[in-house]
Amino acid sequence: MPLNRIRIVLVQPSHGGNIGGCARAMKNMGLTRLLLVAPEDFPGEEASARAAGADDVLARAQVCATLDEAIADCHLVIGASARERRIAWPMLAPDEAARRVLAAVNGQEVAVLFGRERTGLTNDELDRCQALVNIPANPEFSSLNLACAVQVLAYEIRCAAEAGVAAAPAGAAAMLGEPLATSAEIQRFYQHLDQVMVASGFLDPANPRLLTRRIRRLFNRIEMTSNEVNILRGILAAVTQPVVKTKS
Ligand code: SAH
Questions:
Q1: Which of the listed residues 115, 124, 236, 239 has the most CB atoms within 10 Å of its CB?
Q2: Atom of ligand 1 nearest to the CA of 120
Q3: How far is the CA of 168 from the centre of ligand 1 (A)?
């Protein structure tokens, strides 16, 4: 069942009750894979109480120290965001996001990220997402409770599954028949590119403006394969030798 493979990732949730509520929302919709990045209150009584009958989802929840650990092998990462951002990022409606998740989940590892109750996801975390999803809401009161946001998106994913969204619309990378790059490979590429931009004088680390985010947005849009990332890193290594020593 593809729904079992979709990761729901909660980044630093502070209330155990919300974690339990998310587990219940997920299980109601047939999702089971919960990852918790540095949760403040887990495991605990609040989480178990709010999970009601979804204790099995909680028991199998994977706790990770960092977001990168939770999504290292993911090919598609979508972030749930309540807010407009300074730099426009591809923004999906819940049903579009659900279709994209389901289309990918057959051959790829997919994660949907949710942020902290008070402050949401940081820009650094959003930079790891290929797209964001926003749940339309009252503009004067647009931030849903964490478990409610998980419920809405889990519901949309279930609807898409029941509507039979399955075969991925063959994107360019899928047609090449090559594995897509993982989040970890892409993050290493960005670090490498940042080093080269700084070493060449193109990027002033004291005044990066929005340059690094724009670069990430560009590459996050295009579904790079592992091979393509390796080629780009090979070019970076070749043009900078011996100026920059890169770590691989
Ligand atoms: N005050 C925070 C929102 C925290 S709500 C902020 O301004 O960012 C906790 C999490 O629930 C958010 O990080 C987001 O992942 C999800 N969420 C809440 N409301 C949402 C909405 N309208 N659309 C998409 N995700 C939402």
A1: 115
A2: 13
A3: 28
